[in-house]
Amino acid sequence: MKGVLLVNLGSPKSTNPKDVKTYLGEFLMDERVIDLPYILRAILVKGIVLNTRPKKSAEAYAKIWWDEGSPLIVLSERLQEKIDEFTSVPIALAMRYGEPSIHNGMKELHDKGVDDVLLVPLYPQFAMATTETIVVLAEQLRNEHFPQMNLTVLPPFYNHPDYVTVLARSIIEKIENTDYEHLLFSYHGVPERHIRKSDITKSHCKIDGSCCQTPSKAHQFCYRHQCFETTRLVAEKLNLKEGTYSTSFQSRLGFDPWLKPYTDRTIEKLAQNGIKKMAIATPAFVSDCLETLEEIAMEGEEIFEENGGEEFTFIPCLNDREDWVKTMSRWIDEWAHKETTETIV
Ligand SMILES: C=CC1=C(C)c2cc3[nH]c(cc4nc(cc5[nH]c(cc1n2)c(C)c5CCC(=O)O)C(CCC(=O)O)=C4C)c(C)c3C=C
Ligand SMILES: [Fe+2]
Ligand SMILES: [Fe+2]
């Protein structure tokens, strides 16, 4: 029997710094997130980051937390429930870090008799810190606990026409009645090193702004390329004029170079260059979360206004909007009704 496991990033249990510390410990000790040798990673994470960051992060989480819990988890649950209404196969939800765990999600499906699972990382673009770490863990758990279970992975959908259509629609609905001057597409950043590590050709990605436009098989694992493609396709769909939109990368951590341009500096510059009304979309995230609700909708607006900007329009993630639910449900049903277990996107 077929079934689906949706997987998102995860959140702390609560905004208590102790819970935030537990969550950050699991997240940052993942070798695909902080890709240092174990000893160095442990010194950095357990010896330094976990002594300072949890308090600061807990304060940030407290600003966006809902009565029902973490927005990321609540919104993922709503998505799961709605997809469940539209599809004919069991749908489970799991988080890469914290609860509900991937192991529990697989067990839930297994207990319902599911032995053929479509694994759906809830990320439009591939990154080793997101898609890859989910797939690797799910495969490990399958081998250890559910050896009869077949796993099929839904590939990144950053350029899928259905996704691009829904994303474009979510953007236009928010900006059509504003006379915005600039639309910024802000993606979660990753260290430049991650891009090089994921380059299967080992020579394509130069991160110099040109390689991502040159066709290459490296692009199936190039986060930077996939982000720029999402922007390009949405801009094409919305007929945006050159110069009225751009791409940037947010949420950098530490001192290594991350993908540029950085979102905070871009917002600052736009305002300083005289842009009074800007809009911002965050297409690396399917569900609103700390990085969109606090870092963009709150801090981003503050930076814009401090530098002379006047109107800042935050465009929510796809969350549980009906056209997104229907799109995902259609992808799932297409897979569920196929004879073979090939991927469908
Ligand atoms: C230190 C390395 C990090 C990498 C690499 C990274 C990649 C990455 N993350 C997301 C999505 C999310 N990240 C979120 C929070 C978050 N991310 C990092 C660090 C890295 N992320 C930290 C330390 C945190 C925690 C919060 C903080 O202390 O600032 C979230 C929000 C979670 C929530 O509970 O709301 C998301 C979602 C992507 C897509 C990505 C690479 C492409
Ligand atoms: Fe992150
Ligand atoms: Fe590239």
Automatic annotation (TrEMBL):
InterPro entries: Ferrochelatase (IPR001015), Ferrochelatase_C (IPR033644), Ferrochelatase_N (IPR033659)
Top-level taxon in the UniProt lineage: Bacteria
CDD domains, per database record: Ferrochelatase_C (cd00419), Ferrochelatase_N (cd03411)
Pathway listed: Porphyrin-containing compound metabolism; protoheme biosynthesis; protoheme from protoporphyrin-IX: step 1/1
SUPFAM superfamilies linked to this entry: Chelatase
GO molecular function, one term: ferrochelatase activity
Name of the protein in its database record: Ferrochelatase
